[in-house]
Design goal:
With 196 residues, the protein is α+β, with helices and mostly antiparallel strands. It is 42% helix and 20% strand. β3 and β4 form a beta hairpin.
């Protein structure tokens, strides 16, 4: 692997951010309104996502945070170490590490609690007995990162984008079953990305 200079790295970061902003802005402002009443709207949207996504076959080898970041930021997974430098030692992604990755790529964002983003990253948590007493440390052990664009979700457990309802019916249902005593999910923190 060839090391990039700081100037080359900043240029690559700006390029990734600009390309991602352009593709999500075009989807929200042009594609989505044009297909909203079409009976194949989800199929058309997913075809668009697949045509512009920088997701590679190794997605199952990467944890949820870096995968969601790559999907929304347009960063190839083979370059994800630039944004998550200690990924091999620390395979999970907390909010601080996600914020650092977003800052490194140069993306402006707003951090929001308990809400769903229009375009961004969402840290969800699985609800269960551990959530009955409010915010507890054990909640952080039961979290999961996804990327969101409008009503579409990218989840590392499904290597591609899905309409939110399909994601809930298929992926979430399976993930909840795999967590002892879990009975649901909700957004914990989201990062709404500035695209316009």
């Amino acid at each position: 692997m060839v090391a990039l200079s700081a100037e080359e790295s900043n240029s690559a970061d700006r390029c990734h951010r600009s390309a991602a902003i352009a593709k999500w802005s075009y989807f929200l402002n042009t594609v989505r309104p044009a297909i909203s009443d079409h009976w194949l709207c989800h199929s058309i949207a997913l075809t668009y996502f697949e045509s512009v996504a920088a997701i590679i076959d190794e997605v199952e080898e990467t944890s949820c945070g870096p995968s969601a970041f790559a999907a929304i930021a347009g960063v190839p997974l083979q370059d994800i170490g630039t944004y998550f430098p200690d990924l091999e030692e620390i395979p999970w992604t907390n909010r601080r590490r996600m914020e650092q990755a977003l800052q490194k790529v140069g993306w402006s964002f707003t951090k929001l609690d308990n809400t769903w983003p229009t375009v961004g990253l969402c840290l969800i948590h699985w609800c269960g007995p551990w959530t009955h007493r409010g915010y507890a440390h054990s909640i952080l052990q039961r979290t999961h990162w996804i990327a969101v664009v409008a009503e579409y979700v990218f989840d590392v457990n499904w290597p591609g984008w899905l309409p939110k309802q399909n994601w809930e019916d298929i992926v979430v249902a399976e993930l909840i079953q795999s967590h002892d005593s879990a009975f649901g999910w909700k957004p914990l923190t989201c990062y709404e990305l500035t695209i316009g």
